[in-house]
Amino acid sequence: MSAVEISGLSAGYRGRTVVSDVSAGIESGGWLGVIGPNGSGKSTLLKAVLGLVEHTGRVLVDGRAVTGLRHRDRARSLGYAPQLPQLPVGLTVTDYVLLGRTPHTGLLGRESGTDLDVVAEVLHRLDLTRMADRKLPTLSGGERQRAVLARALAQRTGVLLLDEPTTGLDVGHAQELLDLVDRLRHEQGTTVVTTLHDLTMAGQYAERLLLLDQGAVTAEGTPEEVLTADTLEEHYTARISVLRAPDGSPVVAPVRAAEPRRRA
Ligand SMILES: Nc1ncnc2c1ncn2[C@@H]1O[C@H](COP(=O)(O)OP(=O)(O)OP(=O)(O)O)[C@@H](O)[C@H]1O
């Protein structure tokens, strides 16, 4: 169980600020969805929470400052699945997911029976058992995406930061993955922060949404509050209708222009 408190977080690269003064609180077992157009700073915000990019401001996990944690302790409390991970070509799926256990392995760096059990369970949950011995480059894009999530889940952290976890997944596997993350938060109190481009899914799974535009928070609240046609049209420069699913949740539908655009 881990509560996350972000206050006044700004971050950037080589002196250029791309995330400005973001504050957000996520209670233990909560799910915050970070949305926003391309380049608005979503990935950078996640990296700043992890301390991977230059930043100012504060991130507390259960009241402890993340910047004060040793690398190993940080990796025990924050699990991260990046959007574009570097995948070591020579590793099998099992070896790669075992890397997620590194913060827990003993001084000699040998994996224990518990580590292997955790990996087997995570592979099973993500429907990867059949591929356990395959080399990473032989996986399809969606299978690779699930292996990246498997590695983060194997870390068994109280907080999961997932950057576009459904990229490249078909709708069934995307739902399966988000359902699994949702189960973890209900069963184990895992606190979740995801970036998602699929706004309908973001609204269906996250309890609260934070909309970034040019690095600043432009809307924050429940999916019903944030996913309005006016707000989305303004910040995404898009034509949007917000429909309702049978359960009343917002369905964000792009609307095609009446006149086809002519090529110049
Ligand atoms: N390593 C880097 N060095 C310099 N600039 C960077 C770096 N990574 C990202 N940026 C810039 O920071 C800004 C925010 O990028 P970021 O990846 O956080 O956006 P995003 O909202 O996650 O985008 P997308 O939806 O396209 O994935 C962009 O202008 C991007 O070009």
UniProtKB/TrEMBL annotation:
Keyword Endoplasmic reticulum recorded: no
Name of protein: Iron complex transport system ATP-binding protein
One family name in Pfam for this protein: ABC_tran
ABC transporter domain location: 4-239
Species whose genome carries this gene: Actinopolyspora biskrensis
PROSITE patterns xref list: ABC_TRANSPORTER_1, ABC_TRANSPORTER_2
InterPro entries, sorted: AAA+_ATPase, ABC_transporter-like_ATP-bd, ABC_transporter-like_CS, P-loop_NTPase
GO molecular function per UniProt: ATP binding; ATP hydrolysis activity
Record's keyword annotation contains Isomerase: no
UniProt keyword list: ATP-binding, Nucleotide-binding, Translocase, Transport
Superkingdom of this protein's organism: Bacteria
